[in-house]
Amino acid sequence: MSEYGRESLWRDTATADAERPRDLAARLERRAKADDEVAARDTYLGLLEISAGERVLDVGCGSGAVTREIARRVGPAGRAVGLDPSPALLAVARELAHGAGLGDRVDFREGDALRLPFPDRSFDATVCVTALSHIPQGEAAIPEMARVLRPGGRLGVFDLDTDMTAFTHSDRNLTRRIVAAASDATAVNGWLVRQLPRLFQRAGLIDVRARGFFPIETHLHSFYASMADRCVEVAVKAGVVTESEGRAWLHEFHDHGTRGPIVAGRLHIFVWGRTPQ
């Protein structure tokens, strides 16, 4: 693999036409509704201790699924701010927030995670969900997110470990080749999350902790099961497997799914800490 993330759907959303961000937003919203995703989101926002009246930043907000949940937690006296580089995705996020009755407590801003358009000490908490692994030099966002926190403010990053992807299948060797190829092609840095505790510490954060989540779905038409097709597509394109190998692998995976429950999912890690008082 000559370049990590060359097939990432999320690497450059800022200049995409209006139709593609709509498709991406639908993908994000579909994932956000999965039972394990709902449970993980409830847990990691709880670990950040987001409470009523706070001002909270969601970096790389996409369709605003996490921003809307933050808005519910901060209440009418608080403010949830969603930041994303894509004007088209932000337009969808605004629509969904208004549709959920949360438009009066949410702001959406266009901007870059590596150069946040906010002054120092602007927020009580900052969160970034499955965004940094798709951003070139995404690690540079950590000190930026720490910069905009007030003393004692909390920072949390929830991101994926792309190598740790699971599919029900009998062919271990072929599955490993497909997963590894997709890991390298679909994320700029699918291992960034493994470095986050050290990066948090370097940015001056204290009480740094980490917790793992492994969202799993068991039916063929779920979000994580649909990743199998994408993984095969990029593995074939990368020349790691042949088209016939990819078709055969998918045929078995789909056959398992039509005959009963399967396992499809991916490891995510949440790292959080706070700024000194």
Description:
The protein has a domain at 19-160 and 188-214 and 268-274: Vaccinia Virus protein VP39 (Rossmann fold). The chain is an alpha/beta fold and 277 residues long. Helices cover 42% and strands 23% of the residues. It is built from 9 helices and 8 strands. It has helices at residues 19-32, 35-47, 65-74, 87-99, 141-147, 172-186, 192-202, 223-237, 243-259, and strands at residues 55-59, 79-84, 106-110, 123-129, 149-167, 206-213, 216-217, 264-274. The mean pLDDT is 94. The chain is globular and about 55 Å long. The termini are far apart. Strands 1, 2, 3, 4, 5, 6, 7 and 8 form an 8-stranded mixed sheet that branches. Strand 4, helix 5 (141-147) and strand 5 form a beta-alpha-beta unit. 46% of the residues are buried.
* SSE run: HHEHEHEEHEHHEEHHE
- Kindly identify the CATH topology of the domain at 19-160 and 188-214 and 268-274: Rossmann fold
The CATH architecture of the domain at 19-160 and 188-214 and 268-274: 3-Layer(aba) Sandwich
Please identify the top-level CATH class of the domain at 19-160 and 188-214 and 268-274.
Alpha Beta
Q: Give the end-to-end Cα distance, rounded to a whole number of Å.
A: 44 Å
Report the average pLDDT across residues. Answer: 94
What portion of residues is helical? 40-55%
**Cα shape:** globular
Count of individual beta strands? 8
